[in-house]
Specification:
The protein is mainly alpha-helical. It has 3 domains: about 1-55; about 60-95, no CATH class; about 100-170. Helices cover about 65% and strands about 0% of the residues. The chain has 10 helices and 2 strands, in the order αααββααααααα. It has helices spanning about 1-10, 15-30, 35-50, 70-80, 85-95, 100-105, 110-130, 135-140, 145-155, 160-170; strands at about 60, 65. A two-stranded antiparallel sheet has the order 1-2. Strand 1 and strand 2 (about 65) form a beta hairpin.
Length: about 170
């Protein structure tokens, strides 16, 4: 019982705010149906990582003993070491795609082609404006209207414009 009391006393106002944010995300996912595959894990994650003494993150205990958390382990094994989790995530999202509207209206294929065309137009225009090739390629990926890919490409290529590319890709 003392451990529970210590945990309640260790809660800060910032953690309470994050509990509210997590609760709102869970509410939006379940009750309103807004992107449940995205908002539900984000809401639970926001609550879970803000629980004091929960052990989900690496913590230094009394006496300088470091306790490894499950979230840190998942990051080290699933992302940093093998990058398996992002691949599984995109496979899962791809499996949830509903092709019904596309099959009922085949003209929608033109939107996919337009995204690919947008890459080459943005790349060509950025090159003509004087950007070097790595920056122009990073800017060109924005033409596909894919935020995470734009950020990844700009980081991998070592672009000087990672920040502005991230802002433009998500706006």
């Amino acid at each position: 019982m003392e451990f529970l009391y210590e945990g309640l006393l260790a809660i800060t106002w910032q953690q309470v705010v994050m509990y509210c944010v997590g609760g709102i995300l869970i509410y939006l996912a379940i009750c309103k149906g807004f992107e449940p595959a995205l908002l539900l894990p984000m809401g639970f994650g926001a609550i879970l990582v803000n629980l004091p003494f929960s052990g989900v993150l690496n913590q230094v205990m009394e006496g300088g003993i470091e306790s490894g958390g499950i979230i840190e382990w998942l990051f080290n094994v699933g992302i940093e070491a093998s990058e398996a989790m992002p691949i599984l995530l995109f496979i899962g999202i791809g499996a949830m795609i509903d092709f019904g509207p596309l099959l009922s209206n085949p003209k929608m294929f033109l939107f996919g082609a337009a995204a690919q065309f947008g890459i080459f137009v943005a790349l060509s225009f950025a090159t003509l404006c004087g950007f070097d090739l790595k920056d122009a390629a990073s800017i060109g990926i924005i033409g596909a209207a894919d935020g995470p890919t734009s950020i990844l490409v700009s980081q991998v290529l070592g672009s000087n414009y990672v920040g502005p590319i991230a802002v433009v890709a998500y706006s």
